[in-house]
Design a protein that fits this description.
Distance between the termini: 37 Å
Largest sheet: none
Number of domains: 2
Shape: globular
Strand content: under 5%
Structural class: mainly alpha
Helix content: over 70%
Number of strands: 0
Oligomer: single chain
Order of helices and strands: HHHHHHHHHHHHHHHHHHHHHHH
Radius of gyration: 24 Å
Length: about 525
């Protein structure tokens, strides 16, 4: 038990720069640690704010039809799906295949203690996500329903227990996917395809669940059973908090304890064998010297960045899933053009066609790869610094990877959306221009920000792709950059908003790129 607590404490002290802040003597290192911690705080406030707004909107609708308790069940269902998706992504990197595996396993500690500490780390990661999702919903419900005193401690206990089952299920799916592809020659491609397929299935289920909320007054009867139909523990969660169901509480305790116990036992039993399989070479793979190709500096760097990008399934899924959904939305617009046309003809929704370019631009900003591309260099950054290449070429290669993903997807998606919404001449023009300008702007912005806020000391890629301050700022800045002109356009209907937004975005892009070219070499050499 002592080994377990020491290992768990060691993992969490290395998160978010805490260890650097407490122990590093170098002011630069401590400053870098503080940036990581500030990034965590900003992420908590941003996600909490979105959750509060969403909870208030749902609570108002449910309260109007006398179904306020349904808020608790649906938010628990949504939180469980979020934790399930994150658990699948975190399995490789947090539970298995983490960067310091060889170092940790060389210590005189029990393998089961190492596995248990990793399970605890993964569980507490997911508890943070669950709490940011459920606590605002619980507070909104308490304000509107004024429940008995026992509701408050019980809600906190259930929020603590909620991640257990989806974490265990997600870890099992992630382990199965990772292990089954570990010895394949194209294991990254199969891993990416498997994760994409799983997330798409969960998104379809989520869409079908939320589609039943289109008209609350007409679908009240079906909403009462939606939690039980898709995820029974969500119904138990709702019944315990609104009716004090002892049976529901017993089921939640048994499932949570059983899921965590099985997860710890399974991880301890197969911890070494799974990690050994992940670190071994794919079956039948051996090094063969082939003909070497010669190319220019920029092309070679571009191919290197592209290869690095596709070598990480977590990196690919987190950044390219938005483009997959963008293409799916374009196909839907072509398949169901009448549905889209009818929606835009209604007086309440007629203004929405003006906002379509900004919706596509929002997806493009959130899918940029450059917010973490410099941090992904990690401990291999010295190789780049020792190469006889300029920072301009290095940064350009990284930007080209982001644009390689963005430009074809935007062109195809906008063409399909334009056909589906029967766009006119000016609409066609801005439908292409706005998303392309935003994709270029946030490709440059990601580089401009990441070289100032790198996270080079990481043990698993999830720390960079999902938890770094640069990525958080890029995501929420993209939301704001797309939402602000869209809101102004929706309120005023002024045609000048779109060209002015494009002009401002272009000017800011040019300014950031010029800044990168002037200070990039110096900042690259200063990175440790």
């Amino acid at each position: 038990m002592r080994e377990y607590w020491i290992l768990t404490k060691l993992q969490f002290s290395s998160l978010f720069g805490i260890n650097k802040i407490l122990h590093m003597k170098s002011e630069a290192e401590r400053k870098q640690g503080k940036k990581s911690l500030y990034g965590l705080i900003a992420m908590v406030f941003a996600i909490g704010y979105v959750s509060i707004v969403y909870s208030i909107m749902l609570a108002e609708g449910f309260a109007a039809i006398g179904m306020l308790p349904t808020l608790l069940g649906l938010m628990m269902l949504a939180g469980a799906m979020l934790v399930l998706v994150f658990s699948v992504f975190e399995t490789k990197g947090v539970l298995f295949g983490f960067g310091d595996y060889d170092t940790v396993m060389s210590w005189p500690v029990d393998v089961r203690a190492v596995a248990a500490s990793r399970v605890t780390c993964m569980y507490l990661y997911n508890f943070v996500y669950a709490a940011l999702f459920l606590l605002p919903a619980g507070a909104v419900y308490a304000v509107k329903a004024t429940p008995a005193w026992w509701y408050y401690p019980l809600y906190l206990l259930l929020t603590l227990l909620m991640p257990a089952l989806p974490t265990a299920v997600g870890a099992a799916l992630g382990t199965l996917l990772t292990v089954s592809t570990a010895r394949m020659k194209k294991r990254n491609a199969f891993n990416i395809a498997g994760q994409m397929a799983l997330v798409i299935v969960l998104m379809v289920v989520s869409f079908r669940t939320s589609s039943g909320m289109a008209d609350l007054s007409e679908r009240a009867a079906s909403l009462k059973n939606v939690a039980a139909r898709y995820y029974p523990p969500a119904a138990w969660f709702q019944n315990v908090l609104t009716g004090g169901s002892a049976l529901g509480m017993l089921w939640i305790l048994l499932l949570s304890a059983g899921a965590l116990l099985l997860m710890v036992l399974a991880a301890g039993r197969w911890f070494v064998s799974i990690n050994s399989r992940l670190k071994s070479a794919p079956r039948g793979e051996r090094f063969v010297m082939r003909a070497q190709r010669r190319s220019g500096i920029l092309r070679a760097l571009y191919r290197k960045e592209l290869s690095r990008y596709f070598s990480s399934s977590l990196y690919v899924v987190n950044t390219s899933f938005g483009y997959v959904m963008m293409l799916a939305a374009g196909v839907f617009c072509v398949v169901k053009p009448d549905l889209l046309a009818d929606a835009f003809q209604t007086p309440e929704l007629s203004q929405l066609r003006l906002l379509v370019p900004f919706v596509i631009a929002l997806i493009a900003t959130m899918s940029s790869t450059t917010g973490s591309t410099i941090s992904m260099e990690g401990k291999t950054l010295w190789i780049v610094k020792s190469m006889p290449v300029s920072a301009r070429s290095w940064l350009t290669g990284k930007l080209l990877v982001s644009l390689t993903l963005a430009v074809p997807c935007i062109l195809i998606s906008c063409t399909l959306v334009g056909i589906g919404m029967r766009a006119g001449g000016a609409e066609w023009f801005w439908l292409y221009i706005i998303p392309l300008v935003y994709a270029a702007a946030f490709g440059v912005f990601g580089l401009w920000l990441n070289i100032r806020m790198p996270k080079l000391e990481w043990q698993n890629e999830a720390e960079v792709v999902k938890q770094s301050m640069a990525v958080m700022i890029c995501v929420f800045a993209g939301m704001g950059a797309a939402a602000i002109p869209a809101v102004i356009l929706a309120i005023t209907g002024a045609e000048w908003v779109v060209p002015c937004t494009a002009a401002i975005a272009l000017l800011l892009t040019l300014w950031m790129w010029r800044s990168l070219m002037k200070s990039g070499e110096r900042r690259l050499l200063r990175l440790a």
